[in-house]
Amino acid sequence: MKAKNTEKMFQRILKILDKLSVGERPKLKELAAEFEVDVRTIRRDITERLSFFPLGIENGVVIMADGFVFPRSGLKDEELLTTELAFSAICGMSDAIDKQLQTIRAKISYPLYATPYYVKAEQFEKINIEKSLLNKIEDAITKQNISKVTSNDITSVVEPYKIVAFDGLWYLFAKDLSDGKIKTYLLAQVTEFRASLKVYSSDQKAILKMLNNVHSAWFEDGNSFEVIIKVMPEIAHVFKLKKFLSSQEIIKEQKDSTLVVKFTISTDEDIDNLIKAWLPHIEVIKPDRLRKQIQKELEIYMILLRNNNLVIVN
After folding, report:
1. Is 62 inside any structural domain?
2. Residue 220, domain member (yes or no)
3. Which of 90, 219, 223, 286 is the most buried (most CB within 10 A)?
4. Quick one: which of 161, 204, 165, 164 has its CA closest to 182?
5. 81 and 175 housed in the same domain
6. d(Cα 187, Cα 141) in Å, to the nearest integer?
7. Is 119 within a domain?
8. Domain count along the chain
9. In whole angstroms, what is the distance from residue 244 CA to residue 265 CA?
10. Along the 314 residues of the chain, how does pLDDT read in single tens digits?
11. Are 46 and 139 part of one and the same domain?
């Protein structure tokens, strides 16, 4: 079943690349209908499986950076498929192997390294935890065992779901049974982990859907709110080409190319760095609380700068 699904996915990817290589700008809905999948699958193809290409989605249409040309591998499609099937057989064995497979896949299937483009992969810390402890966590996740995890001298009874990375750091993504909320536990701070014989049931699709909408390790389960920002014309094209958060949605484009963009997040930390990274070309419209908070932080920063008390750490 896995090989069959991989074959379908790979053939779909090749056909999408073929369309783009001849100048087509296909719509997500059209691709979904052609390949008999939902729009979310096509969106994932573009934003995840083809993330090493300068592609984007604008108004439901797949676009790519001006001047980019897709180089084709010297391998035939059947040979590429055989290679992909071989990769799928060992995919998921470890995060290190998965990262190597992504690089090898890009080089063999789509030789980007023969083009002027360079894509820098996110750097991840090494999983700073004893191997035996990590094996216990992996085993409990696989067997869906209710477990006890000790982190920061606090022991919690949890349903362990996934080991995930946020901003290069590794966390255990699990439900705390004391309050029924899903939380993150920094692996580097986990000192003890014990799995019980009790087994929990879970909806894996629901868990993956939640993970797709989690933007940082600071998220708060059961809490969500909207943030609306104004993106100035100078950087509007960046937000049209790239979704910085999965919930990003352009709700209005003004005549001067200014964008009004909406995000659905669970905590301020989900979007704080994004806003500050693009200042002064971003303005928070709502919530008013967040807008005032950003303004206050900037005012404090300017005061420190004027008083020459700003300490820069190299």
Report:
1. yes
2. no
3. 219
4. 161
5. no
6. 14
7. no
8. 3
9. 12
10. 455 666 677 778 778 877 877 778 899 999 999 988 999 999 888 887 776 667 788 888 988 765 555 555 444 555 555 555 555 555 565 666 666 666 655 555 554 433 344 444 455 566 667 888 888 998 999 899 999 999 988 999 999 999 888 777 888 999 999 989 889 999 989 999 999 999 998 887 888 777 777 777 777 777 778 999 999 999 999 999 888 887 899 999 999 999 999 998 888 888 888 898 898 899 999 999 999 998 888 888 777 777 765 554 44
11. no
What is the side-by-side strand order in the sheet with 190-199?
181-186, 169-176, 154-166, 145-151, 190-199
Residues 18 and 91 grouped into a single domain: yes
Using a cut of 0.70, tell me whether the model's pTM lies above it. no
Query: Does residue 149 contact residue 193 with C-beta atoms inside 8 Å?
Result: yes
Tell me the CA distances in angstroms from 16 to 39, 66, 206, 263, one per residue in order.
14, 18, 28, 28
Residues 169, 70 share a domain: no
Q: Identify whether the C-beta of residue 187 lies closer than 8 Å to the C-beta of residue 211.
A: no
Joined tokens for residue 208: 């993956």
Is the distance from CB of 163 to CB of 173 less than 8 angstroms? yes
Among 203, 235, 259, which residue terminates a domain? 203
Query: Which domain, by its residues, includes 245?
Result: 225-306
CATH number of the domain to which 142 belongs: 2.30.30
